[in-house]
Amino acid sequence: MQLNAENFGLQALERMQKEWGWIALRGLCAVIFGLLALALPGITLTVLVILWGSYALVDGVLAVVAGVRMREGGKPLWPLIVVGLLGIAAGVVTFLWPGVTALTLIFIIGFWAIAVGLFQIIAAVRLRKQIEGEWLHALSGLLSIVFGLAVVLRPGAGAIAFAWLIGWFAIFFGVMLIAMAFKLRSRRAA
């Protein structure tokens, strides 16, 4: 049986509504990470590397789980799985080479944020006919791209300013994911 694009997106939406908690959990992890970065702006680069590596790894695992559980037409949500695999890879690289320079870490974070943003926007476009508030998903993607570009274009920022930038990005990104999750939850209940 062939599915048209509208039914394909509708199935994904129904699955996302059932699994809204995974989206909320990703958002909560992002907010917690952001608050830690803001509360401890003077932390050493080593601690920042460990915090960021841990966040990327946890977020990546959660994104892969969500992508496998949320299916479109019986198939996993590959854009979300790719985002998860990128996060896992970034986290693993961070732990394998903890002596990575701040500049390299800045570029890893920047390119990771750009990739995540692109996939968030792709998902929002695919779901635009099936869900109200898809703009939250698109906005979180745009925010991620803007953050990534700012990081890549201004890599020489000081460690404290960089920690604050990461913190605010993570909080806003997390709040967008949590808002989308609860919107999905309320739509499911309706």
TrEMBL record:
Top-rank lineage group of the source organism: Bacteria
Can the keyword Transmembrane be found in this entry's annotation? yes
Q: Which InterPro entries match?
A: Acid_resist_chaperone_HdeD (IPR052712), DUF308_memb (IPR005325)
Protein's name in the database:
HdeD family acid-resistance protein
Record's signal peptide = none
Q: Which UniProt keywords apply?
A: Membrane, Transmembrane, Transmembrane helix
Transmembrane intervals:
20-39, 45-65, 77-97, 103-123, 135-153, 159-182
